[in-house]
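Hi V.,

Quick status before I head out on leave. The structure for the redesign project is tokenized and pasted below; the design run finished overnight.
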């Protein structure tokens, strides 16, 4: 059973940066389209960025130009570089396949952006 473990969240001031990491327990990320999702308080979970097996990526309009998704298949890790953070980016961030599969939802990592 593959486990996905998110890390790298924290408290940051508006305009700051964070880099999130998603580590898989075994070789997995290189064969799937992977995504970063987030759930803000009182909101539904949304997909913010994805990266395909071939390395093509895309981001939601709300984060385009500020967030970058990347992957290191040798390290079984997917990253989310978040720059120019805004208070509305405050959420719990998760990684999963795209579409997300229930078996792979982890605890996520909390990102809090203060104004």
């Amino acid at each position: 059973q593959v486990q996905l473990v998110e890390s790298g969240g924290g408290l940051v001031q508006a305009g700051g940066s964070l880099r999130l990491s998603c580590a898989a327990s075994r070789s997995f990320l290189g064969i799937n389209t992977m995504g970063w999702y987030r759930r803000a308080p009182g909101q539904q979970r949304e997909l913010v960025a994805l990266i395909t097996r071939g390395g093509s990526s895309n981001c939601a309009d709300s984060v385009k130009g500020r967030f970058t998704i990347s992957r290191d298949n040798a390290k079984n890790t997917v990253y989310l570089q978040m720059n120019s953070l805004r208070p509305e980016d405050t959420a719990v961030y998760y990684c999963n396949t795209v579409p997300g599969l229930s078996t792979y939802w982890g605890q996520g990592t909390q990102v809090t952006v203060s104004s």
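Above is the designed sequence. The chain has a mean pLDDT of 94.

G. will cover questions while I'm gone.

Best,
W.
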